[in-house]
Write a structure and sequence with these properties.
transferase, 14% strand, Spore Coat Polysaccharide Biosynthesis Protein SpsA, Chain A, Glycosyltransf_2, ten-stranded mixed β-sheet, alpha/beta, glycosyltransferase
């Protein structure tokens, strides 16, 4: 990891300081109410054009985490925006890359932003005031306005109408999810909960963290007058994002939800058309890691999460920001526990990945195909699962991931 600081670790550049190089962008006029209380953390990869537009708009100190860009982003930012602290991760860490910035922050609160998002003037001062006044609040979920039309993100409608009981020590509706690019977090609480995880990696990474914070007794609330702007690129792949949403919904369920919820997530994915099936295959490859981190929250947290699942506005998780129309369609198709609107082809001949791992839990790797079949039979696997294992290549497998790839394919 490479890191550059344009000023001492315990100081922040003020608006009165000159730019450090000729032609460099001057730092925007500071949000004095947020000074010393909030740091903006941005994770990016190969998005120079978006950063050129968004970085001048930030009103608090910025830590930029570069997730292995190959387009010269770190050098560009250092030259053009010398007030920004740049941290190079050298490889793509996904959402957990943000945690590098959180650890380096010297302020009690951290505001996340994407490379194509920024906070409205005065928003971070307001957020800091709210967090100061509500010591149990770990995540302030703000209102995200999408695109030049500034339409509220669909997830914000759901958070504003949260069916969870009001909590008197929180500043707004209680929630169990948030959009990272519209969230301000209490730094110590975020780090104590483990930050973002590398199983989900990216897209929908907020839900597991939200559940863990709630399990630790922290509060999460939606505050409508703290506003962020998000201008996502229309070039993003809608089908790929839907598959990611499905994959990560299944993985998050495996890590934190009861098994019946996991089963519903798998069934919904199987019925979700090509994107759903692709997401399910991708989830199967990460399943061993998700199972290793499985830890269900206290009943009160699961009861709250279940009430959101049953609510018309709750959804299974807030989808991270993307194209407006795509977000609505993805939310409909990927909601845990509800049938998908289209693509109702069930993978009748494909085993449930949860069952696959359960019935192979006694395998001593490396193992050959016949060993896998034998253990599956001993564990009571049905004929369909055994038949699938009998059809995979007859070779030695070094672990569950290798078996999953053989069963579900490599794409």
């Amino acid at each position: 990891m490479r890191r550059s600081r344009p000023y001492p670790a315990d100081e922040h550049m003020t608006e009165d300081q000159p730019a450090e190089s000729a032609g460099a962008e001057r730092r925007p006029r500071g949000d004095h109410g947020a000074a010393g209380r909030v740091t903006v953390v941005v994770a990016t990869r190969n998005r120079r054009r978006d950063l050129e537009r968004s970085l001048p708009r930030h009103e608090a100190p910025v830590i930029l985490v570069d997730n292995g860009s190959t387009d010269g982003t770190p050098a560009f930012v250092r030259e053009r925006f010398p007030h920004v602290e740049v941290v190079e991760a050298w490889r793509n860490l996904g959402a957990p890359g943000r945690d590098l910035g959180v650890r380096l922050a010297r302020t009690p609160y951290v505001a996340f932003a994407d490379d194509d998002s920024w906070w409205a003037p005065g928003a971070l001062a307001r957020a800091a005031d709210v967090l100061d006044a509500h010591p149990r609040l770990a995540v302030l979920a703000g209102r995200v306005l999408v695109g030049p039309e500034e339409r509220p993100d669909p997830t914000c409608h759901g958070m504003a109408a949260s069916p969870l009981p009001a909590e008197p020590d929180l500043p707004g509706p209680s929630v169990l999810g948030f959009l990272a690019c519209g969230a301000v977090v209490r730094r110590d609480a975020h780090l104590a909960a483990g930050g973002f995880d590398d199983v989900v990696f990216f897209f929908g990474e907020e839900e597991r963290l939200a559940l863990d914070l709630a399990a630790a007794g922290w509060g999460l609330a939606y505050v409508d007058d703290v506003v962020a702007h998000h201008h996502p690129s229309p070039s993003r792949d809608p089908e790929g994002r839907r598959a990611l949403a499905v994959r990560n919904a299944v993985l998050t369920a495996v890590m934190r939800r009861p098994w019946p919820v996991v089963a519903r997530a798998v069934l919904t994915a199987a019925r979700g058309g090509p994107a759903g099936r692709r997401g399910l295959r991708d989830a199967a490859r990460r399943l061993p890691r998700a199972l290793a981190r499985r830890r269900t929250p206290p009943w009160r947290v699961e009861a709250a999460r279940a009430s959101l699942d049953a609510s018309p506005v709750g959804g299974a998780y807030p989808l991270p920001a993307g194209i407006w129309a795509d977000r609505v369609a993805a939310a409909r198709k990927c909601r845990v526990g509800e049938p998908a609107e289209g693509g109702n082809t069930i993978m009748a001949n494909t085993p449930n990945p949860i069952d696959l791992q359960k019935h192979l839990s006694g395998v001593d790797y490396p193992a050959k195909r016949d060993d896998l079949v034998r253990v599956a039979r001993e564990k009571g696997a049905d004929d369909a699962l055994v038949g699938t294992l009998e059809k995979i290549p007859d070779r030695e497998y070094d672990g569950p991931n290798a078996v999953s790839k053989a069963v579900f394919g490599d794409d």
